Amino acid sequence: MSLLHTLEVDLGERAYPIQIGTGLLGDADLIGPHLHGASALVVSNSTVAPLYLDALEQSLVARDIRHDRVILDDGEAHKTLAAVETIVDALLERRHDRRTTVIALGGGVIGDIAGFAASVYQRGVNYIQLPTTLLSQVDSSVGGKTGVNHPRGKNMIGAFYQPQCVIADIATLDTLPDRELSAGLAEVIKYGLIRDADFFAWLETHIAGLVARDPALLAEAVLVSCRTKARVVEFDERESGLRAILNLGHTFGHAIETLMGYGNWLHGEAVAAGMVMAIDLSIREGLIDEAVRERSVALLEQAGLPTAPPAAIGVDQYLDVMAVDKKAIDGAIRLVLLRALGDAFVSTDYDPANLHQTLTTN
Ligand code: NAD
Ligand code: GLY
């Protein structure tokens, strides 16, 4: 095993470390200090468990932790309250008390479900994030947003609830399908667009190596992404302001995911197309020039991502779904726009005619 980077999400009494490296899942000394009771429940899915559960369980055995497991069906379509109930049922049946720890082993779907189950079980037990997709390593495992989908909207049921630690084992990315790696790169590119033009330029230089899964480049991309996310979350944990910039492209993207049926467009794919739509609106608003679109589209394409939404969605459908976005206030759709590459802000002060154009011409 090789621990390459550690950084802290500094949230006072809810602070926790993010550990990034290779071969970390089987390291009992890494996870051990974050297990405060004598028991744990591992939540994983039918794809990830056969690959990585053994290594994790060996480290739990080495620490004398009595542990159980819940293996959920794979997929965004299963990110439901029913999955949370399955976890709570297992915790109760196997008599887990308030000192137990829920361990999420998988991508963002597992992390979001397991974190939410931990937040409600006996009014809250500890949980640990072991993210195994690029998307979950750079985004969903950090920051404490947990939850599940409702048929009428993505992530509509959930809680802010921070983990005890995040352990991102880059070696798990070896088995990730290409399409999922690309989906993770969408969120990596997002950090460049919203906060860090130098990182965006670094990504332009190294995109081929990232797509080829160079471990040192992936570890660097995870580190920079997590550092940016941590700083934003530290400033605004519960999204009363700044944190919303992490949602660049997400209002459009969530509408695409919802309207195309959960799981048909991957979250990262929908975000990629949504970011180009947000850039288009920013151009129409006179905030940025065409060069930002050209560079972004080129980078997203090299990352293997879509840069336009599906043709099947009409303006009214978009507006209907976007109106229930969690950023919407009093019926106004708040959108993340760019005032420069590397400088995002949240706005309701855009011309609705421009939004209409963005929704019809993209
Ligand atoms: P996912 O969890 O569905 O994982 C993608 C696929 O890869 C699944 O089929 C999974 O079983 C498989 N997989 C996972 N790890 C693997 C591995 N190492 N090898 C082979 N296959 C593996 O999707 P995701 O992209 O990780 O996460 C998307 C979810 O995250 C969405 O539900 C999204 O809403 C959520 N999200 C949450 C936040 C947050 O802040 N909480 C942020 C961004 C996204
Ligand atoms: N992925 C957006 C956030 O964590 O706020």
Number of domains: 2
The gyration radius over C-alpha positions equals 20 Å
Q: In the CATH hierarchy, what is the class of the largest domain? A: Mainly Alpha
What are the segments in which pLDDT stays under 50 over at least 5 consecutive residues?
none
Shape: globular
Bound molecules: nicotinamide-adenine-dinucleotide, glycine
Based on the structure given, which CATH architecture of the largest domain is correct? Up-down Bundle
Structural class: alpha/beta
Q: Biggest β-sheet: count, sense, barrel?
A: 4 strands, parallel
- The proportion of residues in beta strands is 15-25%
Number of helices: 13
Q: Give, in spatial order, the strands making up the sheet with the most strands.
A: 4-3-5-6
Mean pLDDT: 95
Separation of termini? 46 Å
- Listing every helix as H and every strand as E from the N terminus to the C terminus, the arrangement reads EEHEHEHEHEHEEEHHHHHHHEEH
